[in-house]
């Protein structure tokens, strides 16, 4: 199936760029990276399909997967993003930065 063109409004494009940049520097408990990877996968699928609504939901899911508070002593240690996540963040950043906007 061919890729479809992703056309974003300027606010969604800015939100996606911001959260992708933030995600590249997050430190999370190991299992939380699974939620990040899932959100990134959904973003990629939505971008390839040109599905703006699904892309928007995936951006918000990625935001929610990020760090929300300090880690307590009894919680899992935090780690930086696995290589596969860093690669996907870079790939999606390129897609979003080059996406057309519906505002011109």
UniProtKB/TrEMBL annotation:
Q: Which residues form the CATRA-Associated Small Protein domain?
A: 15-88
Give the highest taxon in the source lineage.
Bacteria
Protein name according to UniProt: CATRA-Associated Small Protein domain-containing protein
**Source species:** Pseudonocardia endophytica
């Amino acid at each position: 199936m061919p890729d479809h063109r992703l056309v974003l409004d300027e606010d969604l494009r800015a939100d996606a760029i911001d959260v992708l940049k933030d995600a590249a520097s997050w430190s999370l408990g190991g299992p939380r990276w699974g939620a990040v990877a899932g959100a990134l996968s959904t973003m990629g699928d939505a971008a390839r399909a040109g599905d703006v609504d699904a892309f928007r939901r995936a951006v918000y899911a990625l935001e929610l997967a990020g760090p929300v508070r300090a880690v307590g002593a009894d919680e899992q240690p935090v780690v930086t993003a696995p290589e596969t996540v860093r690669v996907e963040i870079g790939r999606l950043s390129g897609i979003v930065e080059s996406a057309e906007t519906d505002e011109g």
